[in-house]
Each structure stands twice: as structure tokens, then as C-alpha cells.
Amino acid sequence: MVANSAPCGQCFYCGNGQENLCDDLLFLNGAYAESIVIPARIVQKNLLRLKTKTDFRDAALVEPLACVVQGIEDTQLRKGQNVLVLGAGPIGLMFVALAKHLGCHVTVGGRRQSRLKVAHRLGARQVVKLGPEAAPAETIRKATDATPFDAVIEAVGKPEVWEAAIQSVRKGGTVNLFGGCPSGSMVALDTGRLHYSSLRLLASFHHTPRTIRKALDLIESGVIRAADFVDGHHQLSELPELFQSMAVGNHAVKTFVEVRQ
Asked: Could you tell me if 197 and 81 lie in one domain?
């Protein structure tokens, strides 16, 4: 299993334990090919041998899962906390699975009923259907009887959902603005709420060699399984049609792309 990047190990950020922010982070950009040449640095730092029983479908989830592991650790989730995840896409669902694994009580807000069903199957205590007709924070508040959320994970990447995440956390709580918004996006923040409620805001980006290894361990120990996320299957030759259908609306959580042998 090869990751999609590797830090330099020499810059200030690498020396400060923040390899995900490396000044010379080497990315391996490219996919949908039968073979690819892996740069030496990535081979040295982020090429991992799989156990013989590990399926490639499971191993393919390591990179996104490693980003979620980074987000879980940055948020400092603990057993018994009430956690709200906004977004029921593949990243949001991985947050659900890991937060549940830690012993948190998880609520999920999302728009697609099919994905909310997956969230419930992965251990969410409550799911809330969000729609365009009402503000997300207000819908969450009414559906959960104003549950005090210790932590809120934003896994959508829209400015209005960032704002909803900040509105939904309890006093003294933590918000991880995980979803990346389009470049140049701006959000409006209530400075009084931030200050007088003593909120902790953070954002998690990418992964490190350590979280890559932790993600693989979670997969190989059975905590995370491809069967819980991969509900689409296409051959490499079918990519043009797949992309066209995704542009209209991606109904699969994750799609496995296979090279026909």
C-alpha cells in the first residue's frame, strides 16, 4: 500500500511533528492507470507491506482514513463525549466509525437518506435529515432537543456548514473544520460566541506517516472494512461513463475501480 505523499523530514514542520504541513511535501498525483512509478521518498517513508489476508479493496481506504485519524487526534475525542458529524459522505462516515470505536455518542446530519442509513449502521446514535429549507444548526437543535455537543466535525466543505458547526457546539466545546471549502471562501463568525463561550476551533489537513500506519492497522484489525463503505464497482474502461454519472449526482459512498485481468 502506497500513500499519496511523503514529507521531507528536514524542514521546521517535520521537526515539529507536523509532517502534514511539510514545506516540501512530495505528492504522488495520478490515478486510474494500470501501473505507476513511485518516487523514492514515498517508497522510503510511506510504502507499507500488507498482511497476506488484507484485501486490496480494504487497503485502498488507507489514505482517506489516515486523514480522518489525523482529524480524530487533533480534535482529541474521548470516550463518552457527544459528537456531531455534519456530512454523511465517505469522510463523514469514517469519522462516525472511528468516533463510535472510541466510545463516543455520535449524531450525524446529512442530506441523503441512503447515507444516513449507513451512518446508523456504523454506530450513529441519531441521524438527522438536513434539507435546503432550514438552517442546518436549527434543524439539528430541534431534532436533538438541543443536545450539548462536546465536539462537532464539519465534513462537507461549505462555508454555511462551517458556520453551522460553530453554532452547534456547546460552550467550551471543540469544532474541527475538516471539510476544505473552495479557494477564496469566507465565513461569518459571531465573535461574542467564540470569546464568551470559549470555543476551540481547529482544522485538520492531510496525514502523516504515523497516521498512515495507524489507518492501515485499523483496517487490518477489522475496525474499518471496505464492505461498509464501498458500494459501487466499475472497471477502469468504464471511467468516462462513471464520471458522467458522478457529475449528475454521486449516489455511491465509495466506488471500487478495477483493472480487468
From this structure: yes
Query: How many CB atoms neighbour CB 124 within 10 A?
Result: 26
Query: What CATH code is carried by the domain that includes residue 83?
Result: 3.40.50.720
* Section 233-249 average pLDDT: 91
Give the CA dihedral 181, 186, 191, 193, nearest 10 degrees.
-40
Distance from C-alpha of 153 to C-alpha of 77, rounded to nearest angstrom:
11
Q: How many domains does the chain have?
A: 2
d(CA 231, CA 133): 29
* Residue linked to cell 464501498: 230
CA dihedral for 180, 184, 185, 191, sign (positive or negative): positive
Q: Which pLDDT score is estimated for 261?
A: 63
Q: Which of 260 and 238 is assigned the larger pLDDT? A: 238
pLDDT digits (tens, 9 = 90+) for 30-62: 778 888 899 999 999 999 999 999 999 999 999
Query: Which domain CATH number covers 219?
Result: 3.90.180.10
89 shares its domain with 194? yes
